[in-house]
Amino acid sequence: MGVGATDALPVVHDARAGRKTLRKTSARPHRAGQLSPAGGFGCHLPRILFVSLLQRAFGHGSTGASQRRPGPTLLSTNSRDAWIDRVAHAVERARMNFMTKSLRALVPTAAGLALAITTPVRAQSDPAITPSTMPETPADVKAAPEDAQKTASGLASKVLQAGKGDKHPSAEDTVTVHYSGWTTDGKMFDSSVKRGQPTSFPLNGVIKGWTEGVQLMVEGEKRRFWIPADLAYGEKPGGGRPGGTLVFDIELLKIKQAPKPPAVPEDVAKAPESAVKTDSGIASRVLKKGTGTTHPKATDQVRVHYSGWTTDGKLFDSSVQRDEPIVFPLNQVIPGWTEGVQLMVEGEQRRLWIPAKLAYGENPPPGAPAGTLVFDVELLQIVK
């Protein structure tokens, strides 16, 4: 399963096993009070699972298994544990990450800017990080110096080390950085340098000051930012997040360019007359014939690429844009997916028009798309 950003595959709530489910919160360097594309930095987080809407599957309230009401969560707790095992090798190196906009079913973590999902794994450390190389409190932490660059939004910065690259990231790109953050009284609230582990995140999934500021940088550059409260968490954010102006030292290590979003289907508003319709109300048409001969069963796991739109043409999620296919149990998603993907064979691409009653409903929980949904799905593999 892909580990990464953003988000909205259809899953049902499942509170079996009696375990705590993650409750929905709002959040962002992550934006104040949000757990989403603006989720926050992680302080002392053993592992971060950066998931998409399909992977928001860690519970959004406590809906019984028999209720099978789709919402902005995807996997049951049992499926979650299996999924965690499969992706542990990919996420074990990350202690802090940023949540994407559609990822909202999370619990705020401890201090700092952290808004993420954590599970215990063994800690990793960088032997090159010693007490003598720990970040020191900047001498100018209280206020930006006169020679600092200032933008129209109020963001101030100065270059600490010139970069070697010549390209600036866009807001849609994913960046890998090292960073340390302080309040203006010199108190450090988070540092990837101290943990010895850089972090990667989508640049449009963090507080405004980060989204704007990191776009000023090139690879290899180190820059200090003074981010005013209105571009961070506010003056009194609560929830363990730091308030007021925040000071960050950021080193931009790598830029990963975001794939272009898929084109909006020409027939997104309504299924054409030629579409195949099922008794339940699902309409579909084959975009590319498959190479397989076997159809998945509801109990199978499948590996897919997908993009989803509302009927007004708004893209709400895409594994294609993230360049990360997703694996999930077919009986752990909204009914429209469970039924529709069973019509397919490996290698096939199909467009599905899923009515609200088989998706999230007309008035879904916040963060989930409403009404009829349109999905382009490519069945890559029946995992079994």
Note the topology.
Elements (H helix, E strand, L loop, with lengths): L10 E2 L57 E2 L5 H15 L57 E2 L5 E6 L12 E10 L4 E4 H4 L3 E4 L5 H7 L7 E6 L18 E11 L19 E2 L5 E6 L12 E10 L4 E4 H4 L3 E4 L5 H7 L7 E6 L18 E10 L2
Antiparallel strand pairs: 1-2, 3-4, 4-8, 5-6, 5-7, 5-9, 8-9, 10-11, 11-15, 12-13, 12-14, 12-16, 15-16
What does this structure look like?
There is one protein chain. By secondary structure, the protein is mainly beta. It has helices spanning 77-91, 192-195, 208-214, 319-322, 335-341; strands at residues 11-12, 70-71, 149-150, 156-161, 174-183, 188-191, 199-202, 222-227, 246-256, 276-277, 283-288, 301-310, 315-318, 326-329, 349-354, 373-382. Among the domains are: 131-256, Chitinase A, domain 3 (Roll); 276-382, Chitinase A, domain 3 (Roll). The chain contains five helices and 16 strands. Strands 3, 4, 5, 6, 7, 8 and 9 form a seven-stranded antiparallel beta sheet that branches. The model is unreliable at 1-28 and 30-132 (pLDDT under 50).
